[in-house]
Design goal:
The protein is an alpha/beta fold. It is 35% helix and 30% strand. The chain is built from seven helices and ten strands.
Length: 234
């Protein structure tokens, strides 16, 4: 069943005097439960596409159709900024390459921030945050602030934050970029388990061969154009 329908979307930018496309007339569907990697060199449009799918940005043309929990179609491109914010809060987790942790909050506070916005009680959100931090290997580091954590540990906090509310969709921009191969494998294994257990749809942007090896499906981009869409048989 198609969960997200990408319909001829384009996103352009001005480079000097020239108009260039980060994404150009791109169309494909994302299935519920996909474990999908957007692959391609720097500048291929991977991060722009993630931002469009999440509603952080809107396309110049075309549409992004989301099938919501009531099986009704929602055109993300036509929502107001406030409506897109609400959609992301309730449905999407995002792992940024630069972590985007709140520096004055502890690891557990960063993880449960979304739960707080969703109205989860203090006791429950604290419990859920600590359980998720345990799962990503950060037991006993709950109260440390980002400045007291290594880059790899900060990325684990970011992944825990994305997963703690069990969203329908998790988007991850180069999630292993700052991790050694062993730590990356542990977190990829965790995300695979999460994908199987909760049927969460994962969409990664990455050119890391280790991430690509885990994918059920690989979409290859170049210069904002979709070159290939390959599904793997496991």
């Amino acid at each position: 069943m198609s969960f997200i329908k990408i319909n001829k979307i384009s996103k352009s930018y001005v480079d000097g005097m020239a108009l260039k496309y980060a994404v150009k007339e791109m169309s494909f569907n994302i299935e519920k439960g996909d474990f999908l990697v957007l692959s391609g060199p720097s500048g291929s449009g991977k991060t722009t596409l993630l931002n469009l799918i999440s509603g952080l940005d809107v396309p110049d043309s075309g549409g992004i159709i989301i099938l919501n929990e009531n099986l009704a179609e929602l055109n993300l491109s036509l929502l107001s900024d406030k409506e897109r914010d609400e959609f992301r809060l309730k449905n999407t987790g995002f792992v940024f390459q630069s972590y985007n942790l709140i520096p004055v909050l502890s690891a557990e506070e960063n993880v449960y921030f979304t739960l707080q916005l969703l109205g989860v009680s203090k006791e429950e959100r604290k419990l859920l945050a600590r359980e998720m931090l345990d799962r990503v290997g950060l037991k006993d580091l709950y109260l440390r602030r980002p400045s007291q954590l290594s880059g790899g540990q900060q990325q684990r906090v970011a992944i825990a934050r994305a997963m703690v509310s069990k969203p329908a969709l998790i988007l991850a921009d180069e999630p292993t970029a700052n991790l050694d191969s062993s730590t990356a494998k542990q977190l990829l294994d965790l995300m695979v388990d999460f994908n199987r257990e909760f049927k969460t749809t994962f969409v990664f942007s990455s050119h890391d061969e280790q991430v690509i090896s885990y994918a059920k499906r690989v979409i290859t981009l170049k210069d904002g154009i979709l070159l290939s869409d390959t599904k793997k048989n496991f």
